[in-house]
């Protein structure tokens, strides 16, 4: 049956054909050829969209698209499949009332195929659907390239949503494909695509911000809605065959599409109520079970979500989205292997499922298999070069494997794709911090908190960078902001405690360490930090208790062993000190300070050879270690090697020209060698330095030595 419409001089007429029922299904390749020949790119200076040719009369072609693609008066260009460019005459644009549809015209003497229209009322859940269009340029793909995607119809509602949207399908659409054709398996135009399940509609897991839940909720306007709207559009047409349908009782699809609309608006409770109604009318509605699971997930009912995904898969064992979403739930439940199995199944059903590769990579990473994680992220990017999450996760993996520059390259790409990717800015800041680029790290953390003023980790990271640049007050300000954003951030309390300790505000530092320990009773570093504060306050027994607790919480905390060794040393327990320094060295064989201090303890128990060995090792690790030269000089002096002692004191003084003790002991060694004038000069220098440094006792002691030597 054909419908012929009049064309008046000033108005558009649209002539369409409903294809006869005997049309047979085509292969996806055949449908793609049909779609590509009639799908056009619509460009203007502010963006792009897609459209489909639905009529030709002479040299005038009519294009149907989504209203929002050509909503604003502007200069639009139609680019046809042969890359020819034509002006879309805006004075010919007619917008359909009440629906997100519009038609416009361009002129060409060339021949382009015209769409054949199907009957969208006949489309049912589970039917094959195809969507064609031109995704907008992105960081991954710099030009609009024709895209054709296959999927399934998940709902065809009799009661449309706002703007006429009533057709729902699972096709993976992208921004820029709005206005493109939705085709059935016969290559017939059954709808116009308008809204996609794109990145801005992804919901991020609360346990893993890199896991996304995908609804598959893509919306189109049925072609019959367009045909029924034509008379109202005043476009000079007569439509007698497609009158408004007789009102019917709501069907399952109506409630399903209502649920999807509420879900996208964040009304999860309302979405669940709608899905309940859809399931009541159709107990085998696998899509409704899946999407109700998504809504339950975001209300925190993960067990309920799991039951819904299970039911969806019981009804439809080949439902890739349901496997994917159940995998996300299992991941959140720490069942990484169960999650892997579900992601594997999703990928078996859809080998081009980029998000499933990404999330399987996360599961491999969590299981410690970073190489497999990398392989999955690589595949996710290969399938979808615009997958910012895959670049981000690959960056995290590279950073953990020590490839910091490779990580930064991937964070850059993630940010290029998504300029508001707060986690990528934060982690790029972490990586720059690890590389010692504190200013670069601060810039990244600042951008992260600009995007999300409540990003506690970014404030904490910026505080750390400021700390290492010497801006302790600025660091404290950032740690305080981190705690304002997240009052339970134990790490921020710990870091603020460190900054306050450095500024000698020891009571405030202890208060912060207390809070960190309250939040995390096994926070070894916080016990160690509090121990340091007690030590500087002279409360060595409390310090000893904290260092012991730090070691109990983490037996590999070399700093805690080192610090406890210092307390034992001060309390006269030299053997206890040596044991702790030895343990610190066992954990960290390059711990130069532990070698130096163990040397001091050995020196005090007259193990001079043992002390000498330790000082040698300390200097091997840190060749400019002033104290180690000074201490080794003392050993040489006690062993009678005055020349060796003087050589080490010389090195200590060369490194630190204000090292009073080194001048003092070099003066004594020179006196023992009979170098009296040089000895007196060293002792006088030591006295002056002691006086400048406020060490009155040492100053008086050296003056007395000088008086005795000058007699």
Automatic annotation (TrEMBL):
Record flagged with keyword ATP-binding: no
TPR repeat windows: 252-285, 286-319, 320-353, 354-387, 388-421, 422-455, 456-489, 490-523, 524-557, 558-591, 592-625, 626-659
SMART domains in UniProt: TPR
SUPFAM superfamilies (alphabetical): TPR-like, Trypsin-like serine proteases
A Pfam family the protein falls into: TPR_1
Keywords: Repeat, TPR repeat
Keyword Zinc: no
Name of the protein in its database record: Tetratricopeptide repeat protein
């Amino acid at each position: 049956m054909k419908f012929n419409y009049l064309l008046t001089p000033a108005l558009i007429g649209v002539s369409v054909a409903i294809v006869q029922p005997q049309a047979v299904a085509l292969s996806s390749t055949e449908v793609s050829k049909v779609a590509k020949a009639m799908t056009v790119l619509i460009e203007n200076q502010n963006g792009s969209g897609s459209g489909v040719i639905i009529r030709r009369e002479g040299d005038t072609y009519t294009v149907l698209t989504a209203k929002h693609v050509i909503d604003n008066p502007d200069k639009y260009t139609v680019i046809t499949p042969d890359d020819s460019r034509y002006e879309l005459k805006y004075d010919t644009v007619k917008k359909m009332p009440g629906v997100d549809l519009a038609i416009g015209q361009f002129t060409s003497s060339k021949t382009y195929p015209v769409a054949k229209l199907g009957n969208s009322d006949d489309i049912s859940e589970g039917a094959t659907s195809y969507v064609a269009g031109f995704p907008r340029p992105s960081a991954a793909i710099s030009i609009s390239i024709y895209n054709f995607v296959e999927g399934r119809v998940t709902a065809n509602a009799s009661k449309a949503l706002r703007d006429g949207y009533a057709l729902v399908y699972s096709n993976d659409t992208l921004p820029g494909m709005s206005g493109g054709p939705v085709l059935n398996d016969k290559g017939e135009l059954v709808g116009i695509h308008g809204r996609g399940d794109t990145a801005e509609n992804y919901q991020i897991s609360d346990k893993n911000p890199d896991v996304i839940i995908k609804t598959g909720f893509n919306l189109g306007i049925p072609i019959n809605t367009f045909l029924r709207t034509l008379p109202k559009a005043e476009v000079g047409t007569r439509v007698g065959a497609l009158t408004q349908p007789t009102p019917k009782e709501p069907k399952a699809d109506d409630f399903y599409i209502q649920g999807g609309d509420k879900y996208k608006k964040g009304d999860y409770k309302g979405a669940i109520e709608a899905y309940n109604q859809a399931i009541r009318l159709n107990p085998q509605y696998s899509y409704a079970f899946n999407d109700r699971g998504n809504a339950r997930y975001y209300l925190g009912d993960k067990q309920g979500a799991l039951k819904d995904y299970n039911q969806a898969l019981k009804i439809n064992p080949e439902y890739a989205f349901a496997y994917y979403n159940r995998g996300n739930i299992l991941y959140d439940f720490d069942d990484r292997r169960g999650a892997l199995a579900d992601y594997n199944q999703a990928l078996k059903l859809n080998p081009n499922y980029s998000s499933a590769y990404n999330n399987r990579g996360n599961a491999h990473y969590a299981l410690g298999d970073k190489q497999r994680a990398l392989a999955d992220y690589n595949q996710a990017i290969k399938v979808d070069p615009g997958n910012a999450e895959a670049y981000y996760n690959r960056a995290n993996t590279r950073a953990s494997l020590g490839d910091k520059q490779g990580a930064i390259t991937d964070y850059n790409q993630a940010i290029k794709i998504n300029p508001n990717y707060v986690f990528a800015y934060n982690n790029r800041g972490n990586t720059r911090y690890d590389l010692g680029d504190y200013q670069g790290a601060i810039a990244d953390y600042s951008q992260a908190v600009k995007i999300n003023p409540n990003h506690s980790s970014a404030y904490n990271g910026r505080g750390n960078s400021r700390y290492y640049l010497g801006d302790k007050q600025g660091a404290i300000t950032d740690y305080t902001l981190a705690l304002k954003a997240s009052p339970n951030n134990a790490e921020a309390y710990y870091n603020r405690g460190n900054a306050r300790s450095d500024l000698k505000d020891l009571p405030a530092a202890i208060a912060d360490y207390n809070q960190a320990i309250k939040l995390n009773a096994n926070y070894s570093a916080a016990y160690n930090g509090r121990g340091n504060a007690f030590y500087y306050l002279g409360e060595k027994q409390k310090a000893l208790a904290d260092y012991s607790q730090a070691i109990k919480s983490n037996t590999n905390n070399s700093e805690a062993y080192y610090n406890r060794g210092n307390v034992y040393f001060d309390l006269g327990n030299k053997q206890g000190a040596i044991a702790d320094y030895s343990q610190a060295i066992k954990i960290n064989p390059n711990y130069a300070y532990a070698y130096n201090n163990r040397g001091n303890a050995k020196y005090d128990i007259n193990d001079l050879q043992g002390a000498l060995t330790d000082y040698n090792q300390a200097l091997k690790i840190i060749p400019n270690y002033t104290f180690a030269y000074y201490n080794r000089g003392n050993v040489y002096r006690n062993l009678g090697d005055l020349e060796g002692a003087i050589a080490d004191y010389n090195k200590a003084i060369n490194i630190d020209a204000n090292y009073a003790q080194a001048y003092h002991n070099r003066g004594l060694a020179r006196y023992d060698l009979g170098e009296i004038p040089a000895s007196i000069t060293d002792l006088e220098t030591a006295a002056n330095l002691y006086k400048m440094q406020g060490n009155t006792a040492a100053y008086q002691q050296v003056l007395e030595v000088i008086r005795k030597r000058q007699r």
